[in-house]
Amino acid sequence: MRERCDLKCELTPNRHTQRPTQPARARNGERERKTDENTSIYLGFSLANSTAAIVYLNSKRDSEWSRATLETLTAQRRHHMRTKFASIAKPNEFAYVFDSEAYDSSPQVDSHFRMFATYGDGLCQHSGDWTITTEFMADYLASMATVMLADEELTKRAAYELTRAPSLKDIEFAASVVFKESDRDWSHRRYYSTSERKLTSSRAKQHDKRYEEVAEWNNGTPAAIYRMLIPSYAHGLTMYAYADAIRNWSLSQTKLYMDMPAEFLNWFPGDRDKVQQLRHAFNACLNLARAYQLRCEALNDLQNIPTPPVEAPAQVDEPEVLAPAQFDAPEPEVTAIFSQLAADREVGESEPQVAA
User: Fold this and answer.
1) Is the pTM value of this prediction over 0.85?
2) How many CB atoms lie within 10 A of CB 7?
3) pLDDT tens, 145-199?
4) What does the domain layout of the chain look like in residue ranges?
């Protein structure tokens, strides 16, 4: 009985020390392995597109996730673009960089538009890079435009960021949504959707997330159009692009007036020179981006034109030229006659002539 109790005590874990049994050790080992795997996942995503992430994942190649993530990061690095260019306004203090993989949760202008300190050492980076502010936006765009003239890849990447603007149809629809006194009545309220460009009085749209109620501020002015169309959590470059598109549309309207985009956004109060510089720099980059897009469309149109098949030149039959050995030999009688005439001629030339 004593031995049986001892054996039972050896197989049962002590509740005071919580010594794990063999199955518990296996579960703990599995938990530790999962912890290591989660750590690799965290490090992989936190160090994405960096050399440290690839070096770390190379050391974990035995993991299926690590191999897959390593292949993904390697492929992303092939398409990663990081272009540095000098500042026009402050070449001895800062330089700029366009990083296609950089990301900030709340950039003031754009996550890909960044700058760093050079301390007068050309394009050598002596600090970490950070997103530019609206104060450096005009200089950044002007400096980038000079590089876009010769760098097609930079123009291609920056075109997507620069051409985020509402279409002419979106602006015209937003301008057509105007509040009426009848909209105060609950039974006559109207609802609009900018994504579908629809204006309706159907009560079924009251709880539709795509539709919003026509309010008193919907008066068709540029400010109301901008408020209707601007997406949520838009950064500075998108805000400027939307304001610029709405202003260009308002110039063709007789009863509407809108300040320049930077003034409309109240970025540089009282400093009209910065407003003008930002407008010219943005238009330069935007025109280069549109020129690149038009060039791509032209090339696509040319590729869609079928080329006629090229006909081989007709072969002309040349006359057959007989070789000297293929001519028929003269008859023997004719040969003898010509030989006798030639001999008589030679004899006549050799005899002396007698004077008359």
Assistant:
1) no
2) 10
3) 999 999 999 999 999 889 989 999 999 999 999 999 998 888 889 999 999 999 9
4) 2-79, 168-303
